[in-house]
Design brief:
CATH topology: BirA Bifunctional Protein, domain 2
Helix content: 25-40%
Distance between the termini: 51 Å
Number of strands: 13
Order of helices and strands: EEHEEHHEEEHEHEEEEHHHEHH
CATH class: Alpha Beta
Radius of gyration: 18 Å
Strand content: 15-25%
Number of helices: 10
Largest sheet: 7 strands, mixed
C-alpha cells in the first residue's frame, strides 16, 4: 500500500503545435475547476516546431522565411520566455494548484520544487545534473534583462545544468490559481537550424551568440556515453518526477468530450493569426 498522492500522467505522444498548447491550457482550466487531479504530461511535436514566448515580437525577432524553409510548425506559448526549437526532445508540462502543500508561493521556489523531478530524471540517465543558483549581483542582474531571443542562451534561477551547461529550459505561468510549468529536455540539438530562425542585427552578432550557446547549453546525447532515446528519457523522467515530488503517477485518459474541447481550442486560439502574430 502506498500513501503517496496520485497525480494524473499523460504519456508521450507527438501532436501539432496548436494541439500541444491547447491541451496544456485545457488541463490548467480543468484542474482549476477541480475536474482533474494535478497532471504531468510528456509530449513531442509533429511537425518539429518553433515556439515563442507570450511576449515576443514576431516581426522583430523571428525569421518566418526560415521557419517555412525548414517546414517547421509555429506557435506562441501561453508562457513567457524565448524562442525554442522543439525537435529532438522530450517536452513536459506540470499542472498543479498554487495551493498545493508542496508548492511554495514564490515562482522561483515553485520552479525549483517542480524541477526536482527533472533533476532526478537526469540522474537516472547517469548524468550529473545540478541546480545552478546565481550568487553575485552581476549574475542576478543578467537574469533580469536577457538580451537574447533564444531560450537556451541564459541559465536562470535554479536552471538545470550538467558540467556547467544548461540541459533543460522551462517556463511558468500562473492563471486561475494554477501553476503551469512546461519545458524542453533536449536529446539532440541542431544548432545551425536553431540559429537560422532568428533575426540578428548583423552576421557578427549571430556568430557571437552561436559561439556563446555552445558554451552555455548542451543536449543529453552530447553528454551521455550511451545514446538516449525518447523511450529511455520517458522512463527516466517519469520515475524522476515520482521521486522528486514524492507522488505516484497514474495514466490519465481524456474523454471524447475533453478531446473535442482541446481540438476546438487549438483551432480557435493556437492556430489563429491573431494569437500567434499580433503582439
Amino acid at each position: 500500500m502506498t500513501d503517496q498522492e496520485v497525480w494524473g500522467f499523460i504519456d508521450y505522444q507527438a501532436h501539432s503545435p496548436s494541439f500541444n498548447m491547447a491541451l496544456d491550457e485545457a488541463l490548467l482550466d480543468w484542474h482549476s475547476e477541480g475536474v482533474i487531479p494535478p497532471v504531468i504530461r510528456f509530449y513531442g511535436w509533429d511537425p518539429a516546431t518553433l515556439s515563442i514566448g507570450y511576449f515576443q515580437k514576431v516581426e522583430k525577432e523571428i525569421d518566418l522565411d526560415a521557419v517555412k524553409k525548414h517546414h517547421l510548425g509555429f506557435v506562441r506559448r501561453p508562457t513567457g520566455g524565448r524562442g525554442v526549437l522543439h525537435e529532438h526532445e522530450l517536452t513536459y508540462s506540470v499542472i498543479v494548484t498554487e495551493e498545493h502543500p508542496k508548492m511554495p508561493s514564490s515562482v522561483t521556489e515553485a520552479y525549483r520544487v517542480i524541477s526536482a523531478g527533472i533533476l532526478k530524471g537526469f540522474h537516472h540517465l547517469g548524468l550529473d545534473a545540478y541546480f545552478a543558483v546565481p550568487h553575485t549581483d552581476e549574475e542576478k542582474s543578467k537574469l533580469k534583462n536577457p538580451r537574447s531571443s533564444v531560450c537556451f542562451d541564459a541559465p536562470s534561477w535554479y536552471e538545470l545544468v550538467v558540467e556547467g551547461r544548461k540541459v533543460a529550459g522551462s517556463a511558468q505561468t500562473r492563471q486561475k490559481g494554477i501553476i503551469l510549468q512546461h519545458g524542453s529536455i533536449l536529446l539532440d540539438l541542431d544548432e545551425e537550424k536553431l540559429f537560422s530562425l532568428f533575426k540578428y542585427r548583423n552576421e557578427r552578432v549571430k556568430e557571437r551568440m552561436q559561439k556563446a550557446l555552445k558554451s552555455k547549453a548542451v543536449a543529453i546525447n552530447d553528454l551521455s556515453p550511451t545514446r538516449v532515446t525518447i523511450d529511455m528519457a520517458r522512463n527516466a523522467f517519469k520515475q524522476g518526477f515520482e521521486e522528486g515530488l514524492g507522488i505516484e503517477l497514474k495514466p490519465y485518459e481524456l474523454t471524447a468530450d475533453q478531446l473535442a474541447y482541446v481540438n476546438d481550442l487549438a483551432k480557435r486560439r493556437y492556430k489563429s493569426t491573431e494569437w500567434n502574430f499580433k503582439r
